[in-house]
Specification:
By secondary structure, the protein is α+β, with helices and mostly antiparallel strands. Helix content is 19%, strand content 32%.
Length: 350
């Protein structure tokens, strides 16, 4: 046997001996790291037509676009859907959370139009990190990742996946009305048999029906035309609720008219645990002869009614209060003019 063969056999013996030692001592050879692996199997984003987050949230693409099936079919924001589905497609393993178990994972499923599952993921709780240096954010820890299941293990991903908590507000546009306050020429508040009508005269508001000893409290009219300038909803009312349950017949009515002929009416109904029921409607009465402008305004009003005007909402109580003003909120006793100093001295017997 040559010297070269002896060396080769010696090296082989060392390798085999080392392997035997690892086996006999119970030591396992470390498997390749999962870090950087795609958490969700590859899928075509264009094929996604249904997003299911357990029974908490279901989003569906149909003839009318994307809607929230678990919110009476309310329209979803397609931009938010694309953004969040893209997050899933790009989701990578940050690290393996050894020894951690997700007790009650929520299954997220992406399906095509025929109901075939394209991808799925089991989601756990968020991971919170404490801010480093400076002022603490939000009073303490903030979410910087999320635990999910991958290959029978719990792993941590670097995205907190906020939209996948089951809150429908993160998938829709919650702003139901956004009107510019400039251009308003008339505001009306109706509550029961009482009506308060304010009109803009130049830059100032005026009020009709004042008594000889009454005057408009101008400090209270600075925001009468902005109740619908940015209005958020907190919920969508169940379409099965009756008119009596909604309470619009006895509720307050707020309306604002604009110089271009548009008019918006907000009807307030009964109160709920979350706020108060609201119904919106827009109309248009041409004030000019420009056919192109009138057609554009009419189209905008029609679009408003087909969306915001189609639903009954719940808005926050403070927002409803700004539309439920009464006469006493605007009228004050007229201040008598002060006499000239000479007349005042004569009246005092000086």
């Amino acid at each position: 046997m040559t010297t070269k063969n002896v060396i080769i056999l010696g090296v082989a013996a060392v390798v085999l001996g080392g392997a035997a030692y690892l086996t006999s001592s119970g030591t396992k050879v470390r498997t390749p790291s999962l870090n950087g692996k795609s958490v969700v199997k590859a899928f075509n984003i264009a094929d996604v037509a249904r997003v299911e987050l357990g029974d908490k949230l279901v989003l569906v693409a149909g003839e009318q676009g994307w809607t929230v099936e678990t919110l009476y079919g309310y329209p979803a924001d397609v931009v938010k859907i694309r953004e969040n589905v893209l997050k899933l497609a790009e989701l990578k393993v940050g690290q393996v959370a050894r020894g951690r178990k997700i007790d009650s994972p929520v299954k997220l499923a992406l399906k095509d139009a025929k109901g075939k599952e394209l991808a799925q993921l089991e989601i756990g709780e968020q991971h919170f990190a404490k801010p480093r240096g400076g002022m603490p954010m939000y009073g303490g820890a903030y979410p910087d990742g999320r635990y999910v299941k991958y290959a029978d293990q719990t792993v941590l991903v670097k995205d907190a996946l906020d939209a996948f908590d089951g809150d429908w507000k993160k998938w829709v546009n919650t702003c139901i009305c956004q009107l510019p306050s400039d251009g308003a020429v008339e505001v009306k508040f109706v509550s029961g048999k009482e009506a308060v009508e304010l009109k803009r005269d130049g830059k100032d508001w005026t009020m009709s029906g004042l008594g000889v000893k009454e005057e408009l409290d101008t400090s209270k009219v600075h925001a009468v035309d902005s109740a619908l300038s940015y209005l958020d909803m907190v919920n969508v009312a169940d379409p099965k609720l009756t008119e009596a349950e909604l309470g619009f017949a006895t509720g307050a009515v707020y309306s604002v008219a604009f110089k271009d002929g548009k008019k918006y009416v907000a009807k307030l109904g009964n109160t709920t645990d979350e706020g108060r029921y609201l119904k919106l409607e827009a109309s248009f009465t041409p004030v000019g002869t420009n056919a192109v402008e009138n057609a554009a305004i009419e189209s905008a009003v029609k679009a408003f009614n087909s969306m915001s005007g189609k639903w009954t909402y719940v808005i926050q109580s403070y927002a409803a209060d700004s539309m439920a003003k009464t006469r006493k909120d605007f009228v004050k006793a007229k201040e008598e003019p002060k006499p000239a100093s000479g007349k005042a001295d004569a009246a005092a017997g000086k």
